[in-house]
UniProtKB/TrEMBL annotation, chain A:
This is G3E family GTPase. The keyword Nucleotide-binding applies. Zinc chaperone that directly transfers zinc cofactor to target proteins, thereby activating them. Zinc is transferred from the CXCC motif in the GTPase domain to the zinc binding site in target proteins in a process requiring GTP hydrolysis. Belongs to the SIMIBI class G3E GTPase family. ZNG1 subfamily. It comes from the Bacteria. InterPro entries: CobW-likC_sf, CobW-like_C, CobW/HypB/UreG_nucleotide-bd, P-loop_NTPase, Zinc-reg_GTPase_activator. Keywords: Chaperone, Hydrolase, Nucleotide-binding. It catalyses: GTP + H2O = GDP + phosphate + H(+). Residues 229-323 form the CobW C-terminal domain.
Automatic annotation (TrEMBL), chain B:
InterPro entries: WD40/YVTN_repeat-like_dom_sf, WD40_rpt. This is WD40 repeat protein. SUPFAM superfamilies: Calcium-dependent phosphotriesterase. It comes from Ancylobacter vacuolatus. It holds the Pfam family WD40. It comes from the Bacteria.
Length: 324, 330
């Protein structure tokens, strides 16, 4: 029978610097008794065996889209692999993509927004990053890829916590938070975690943008000044003018897109009873009205950028100029 | 133009088929239509349906001629299936995906796995070549042994029997499907972007064919190579290729406009007629000269994924993503 309204297949991206524990996490996910089947896309064949029926090797072929957008890179091999996997979509419930330790997660994420077929049939569920609690601080200093992986993450497993002290853990968590205020951080050992904290996150689902933690917004200047990658957050309790906001954000992401890794916002527009939510990956923005503002919630517009070398003062000025 | 309020219809001639799986390719083997299902089966339709299991997994690419249908699968096999229901594995490499296949003359064929393309002549040794990136499309020149190999950054023209390095036709971006014009003067690719790119082989001149709202997944040269008919828009777009310089500086013809996108096209082998399938399952036959339309299949909400004319033009086979298929014999 034709399956007309088949739901989109969720895709989870696993990233993490070399040796952080990605493959251990992958094998844990696959061996849990969840009764679900996953297609796994891997790059590093042979390092540690992956116990799964459907494992596909990827080549990490990144190319630029010919659309004048220099940061709009996608993974050509993933488009091809997902097209192929979709032909046997009855054989699995979800797709897990394990990237190499040196991979930039952006082209992987952008693939799901740029390719029509991939975007129509699958949905990016979350970027999950495994970080080594002992070595992450060093990697943040010397490895730009490690920084991008933290900046991009929706879920971070702070792994190997048995190798560090509580003080060191708190310090590394602070550093993660300075870069990425959205991600859910879980402390783990040997990548041990409940599977529902990793899969089914809906991190790119506009309906599931609930709140941007006000704690981090109020402490907007609570960051490490030596970090070139960090988060920038702004808020306003005055309603915004959509005719000012949209041109501003579009121009900003066009011109600063390469330096803005991710963005997220919950906005209150003038004379608009509904919350407007948006999220973006570099230059690609996705936004919509979400639901009416509740009577008990303050109509606060909040905006967060994760990026590098952004001019915080100019961003703030630009954002505040959108007030109606 | 015919009166659009009461279009001519031949839907009564349609023999509906329920194949039970998405059709990813379609060809006539002589008079027998062969529907290739994404999940590895080929359905040969005569009085009855004969189902042949060609692959233990998904079919990734389909090619062929009027005697055999060639399929490449994620089981690492290249399989030739014939009208008598026989299926023969021509090649097998466990653990690899056969991304592309192409049929050459006299039983020769080519295929690719990742960056490597292979050419297997009818007799003799297999030749292989590694391209700079994954092969996105593979097509034999209409005559002789030359292959157009699409990849990132352009197309390589590969002469497997020559020692020389393949000739590179450059154009930035990811090239997916590739096709020669019947007179071998042009090579055209479908791109990852919503555009086609072509090269005039005489002087390497570029032809950018843009303006599509979505990616082009189906294209066909009409009889004699006069037009290149394409999907990707809410009408069939036909680029004029009759003149020496190709379609540059000319407007394409737009036929059979609707409010639904064209998902598949097929050119009649003899007449200036195309079949045009849409994302809602509707199929029209359209005369190029005056745009006259005849309805062959009504809409049922499923995307038309493949169309094929019988070699004499006397029948059209229709495949869809849901497996609801059809055969119209005129």
């Amino acid at each position: 029978m034709p399956d007309v309204a088949s739901p989109k297949i969720p895709v989870t991206v696993l990233t993490g610097y070399l040796g952080a524990g990605k493959t251990t996490l992958l094998n844990r996910i696959l061996s849990e008794p969840h009764g679900k089947k996953y297609a796994v896309v891997v790059n590093e064949f042979g390092e540690i065996g992956i116990d799964n029926d459907l494992v596909v090797g990827a080549d990490e072929e990144v190319f630029e889209m010919n659309n004048g957008c220099i940061c709009c890179t996608v993974r050509g091999d993933l488009i091809r692999i997902i097209d192929g996997l979709l032909r046997r979509k009855n054989d699995f419930d979800g797709i897990i993509i394990e990237t190499t330790g040196l991979a930039d997660p952006a082209p992987v994420a952008q693939t799901f927004f740029v390719d029509e077929t991939v975007g129509a049939k699958t949905s990016l569920d979350a970027v999950v990053t495994v970080a080594d609690a002992k070595w992450l601080k060093d990697r943040l200093k010397d490895a730009p890829e490690a920084k991008s992986q933290i900046a991009f993450a929706d879920v971070i497993l702070l792994n190997k916590t048995d190798l560090v002290t509580e003080t060191e853990l708190k310090d590394v968590e602070m550093r993660i938070r300075a870069i990425n205020p959205f991600a859910r951080i879980h402390r783990t050992q040997r990548s041990e975690i409940a599977i529902d904290k990793v899969l089914g996150q809906g991190a790119f689902d506009l309906d599931r943008i609930q709140a941007i933690d006000p704690d981090f917004l109020e402490g907007g200047h609570r960051h490490f000044h030596d970090e070139d990658m960090r988060s920038y957050s702004f808020s306003s309790d005055k309603p915004l003018d959509p005719d000012r906001f949209f041109p501003w954000i579009q121009d900003l992401t066009q011109t600063q897109g390469p330096n803005i890794l991710r963005s997220k916002g919950i906005l209150a527009f003038k004379d608009d009873p509904e919350r407007f939510v948006f999220q973006g990956v570099h230059m690609i923005l996705d936004g919509d009205h979400q639901r009416p503002w509740r009577a008990d919630e303050p109509k606060l517009s909040r905006l967060v950028f994760i990026g590098r070398q952004l001019d915080a003062a100019a961003l703030e000025k630009g954002f505040l100029s959108c007030v109606a | 133009m015919t009166d659009t309020s009461s279009p001519s219809s031949l839907t009564s001639k349609l023999r509906p088929l329920d194949l039970g799986g998405a059709v990813v390719g379609l060809r006539f083997l002589g008079t027998t239509p062969a529907f290739v299902l994404g999940e590895g089966e080929i359905v040969l339709v005569e009085e009855d349906e004969v189902r042949v299991r060609a692959h233990h997994g998904a079919v990734l690419s389909v090619a062929g001629d009027d005697k055999r249908i060639l399929t490449g699968g994620d089981d690492g096999r290249v399989v030739a299936t014939r009208a008598d229901g026989s299926a023969q594995a021509l090649y097998e490499q466990k653990g690899r995906w056969i991304d592309q296949v192409a049929a050459g003359s006299e039983g020769a064929f080519a295929f690719s796995a990742g960056k490597t393309a292979h050419f297997q002549p009818a007799k003799g040794e297999r030749k292989s070549h590694d391209f700079p990136s994954t092969v996105g499309g593979l097509a034999f020149a209409p005559k002789g042994t030359r292959l157009a190999v699409a990849h990132y950054g352009g197309v390589s023209l590969w002469f497997p029997n020559a020692q020389a390095k393949p000739e590179l036709l450059e154009w930035k971006g990811s090239h997916r499907g590739v096709m020669w014009s019947p007179d071998m003067r042009f090579v055209v690719t479908t791109m990852q972007e919503a555009a086609l790119h072509g090269w005039r082989l005489s002087d390497g001149g570029h032809m950018r064919m843009t303006g599509y709202p979505s990616r082009v997944t189906s294209m066909a040269f009409t009889t004699g190579g006069k037009f290149l008919a394409t999907s990707g828009s809410s009408e069939a777009i036909l680029w004029p290729f009759a003149s020496k310089e190709g379609p540059m500086g000319k407007q394409p013809s737009m036929l059979a406009p609707r409010d639904v996108r064209v998902s598949a096209v097929a050119a009649h082998p003899r007449d200036e007629v195309i079949a045009c399938g849409y994302e809602d399952g509707l199929v029209l036959m359209v005369r190029i000269s005056d745009g006259a339309e005849i309805l062959l299949r009504g809409p049922d909400g499923t995307t038309v994924s493949a169309l094929a004319w019988r070699g004499d033009g006397g029948a059209l086979a229709i495949g869809t993503e849901s497996g609801a298929a059809g055969l119209t014999v005129f």
